[in-house]
Amino acid sequence: MKDLDSITCIKDLKELAKKRTPKMFFDYVESGSWTESTFRANCEDFNKIKFKQRVAVDISNRDTSVEIFGSRLKMPCAIAPVGLQGMQHPDGEILAAKAAENFGIPYTLSTMSICSIEDVAKKTSNPFWFQLYVMKDHSFSKNLINRAKDVGCSALILTVDLQILGQRHKDIKNGLSTPPKLTIKNILDLIKYPKWCFNMMSTPRRTFRNIVGHVEGVSDVTKLSAWVSEQFDPKLSWEDVSRIRDWWGGKFIIKGILEPEDALNALNVGADAIIVSNHGGRQLDQTSSTISMLPKIVNEVGGKVSVWLDGGIRSGQDILKAIALGADNTLIGRAMSYGLGAGGILGCRKALDILHTELDMTMALCGHRNLKKIDKSILKM
Question: Which residues of 325-359 are buried (b: 16+ CB within 10 A; e: fewer)?
Fold first, then answer.
């Protein structure tokens, strides 16, 4: 794909994705709740952190790999669960999962994916991770977990920061729906993207396939939105989290931790890893960025449970900063979605190559050749 040849950074992928993706679906990714101040702070606070340059040291034979849950990853990064990836590009979850598999990092499938658990499993070889939202319908949650087990998913990520849905102004103004409702406004937008429309018509995967046909009374898309809007569980408790851990019985990761107190709670229920996350700034607005809270959480539970981070990562330098501040792993969502929108599986691979190159080169220019030896001494504190 010639357009990808001139891409040099994640920002370039974002700009290309905006040209190729209908507005409601691009805006779905590129938005936060209310004033979007937390959404912006996630990136801005990374930019405030500076590196120390070191020279005249041996930086040959560099190694950016890490071991997570017994698997060797090419870099300390996994693909975060992102809803509606299959609307950024047709069969988006399948393509992103294959790109991650080929690159050598884990992929996480969202509950709110367009391609189903089974769809992704049929098109990939390595086990992927599955992310669960807690619904009022516990039988549905149990069924999702069993389906993930049946296809061999190797870890469960439980998202705990979406008991109610944060208000995102862009989604309301755009009338976000999957598939898009054929209003005059939407039709006028969709005709600007004939290639996207043609490719989308070529796949049967255009709605939430983890849900439709798997919930009693939700057999078609006309009943789907009403069910989803009522199903997030506002009564979620740590006792519920423990119960879900037991239902799963495997590697268990809790996503949505932003305060040390909740990190301790996650530790106490037996999480194998926690993800310092504010849902990409899409839930509580005017709260802390993830990178600003990472050191406090590492100080509280580091060494007792694996601490990961997502939110605001737009470069390999951001990944290195998170590792330097104590994270064991990171997750990317928007960067991969930009790649999908820009160029499908090739765009995903481009995003991963960019991040890895930036991580590797920055580590070298900081005077290191082994990621395992990285700590906050590489930063200007």
Answer: bbbbbbbbbbbbbbbbbbbbbbbbbbbbebbbebb
- Residue labelled with tokens 């330097």: 324
Predicted confidence band of residue 11 (pLDDT cuts 50, 70, 90): very high
309 in Cβ contact with 327 (< 8 Å): yes
CA angle 279, 281, 285 (to 5 degrees): 120
The answer to whether the beta carbons of residues 27 and 372 sit under 8 Å apart is no
182-198 residues labelled b (16+ CB within 10 A) or e (exposed): eeeebeebbeebeebee
CA atoms within 13 A on the CB side of 30: 19
Mean pLDDT of the chain: 95
Residues 6+ apart with CB under 8 A from 319: 75, 76, 77, 313, 330, 355, 358, 359
Q: Tell me: the pLDDT tens digits for 45-92?
A: 999 999 999 999 999 999 999 999 999 999 999 999 999 999 999 999
Would you state the pLDDT for residue 31?
96
* Maximum Cα interatomic distance, the chain, rounded to a whole number of Å: 67
Amino acid code (one letter) for 131: Q
Fill in the DSSP letter of residue 371: G
In the set 89, 138, 169, 279, the catalytic residue is: 279
DSSP 305: B
Residue 279 annotated among the catalytic residues of the structure: yes
Strand 273-276 versus strand 251-257 pairing type: parallel
Mean pLDDT of 327-334: 98
The per-residue pLDDT for range 337-374, each reduced to its tens digit, is 999 999 999 999 999 999 999 999 999 999 999 999 99
Task: For the chain, list the domains and their CATH numbers.
Answer: 2-380 (3.20.20.70)
SS3 93: helix
Closest CA to 142 of 247, 237, 252, 271: 247
Angle at 25 between CA 20 and CA 26, to 5 degrees: 55
Q: Which region holds residue 69: left if phi is over 0, alpha if psi is between -120 and 50, else beta?
A: left
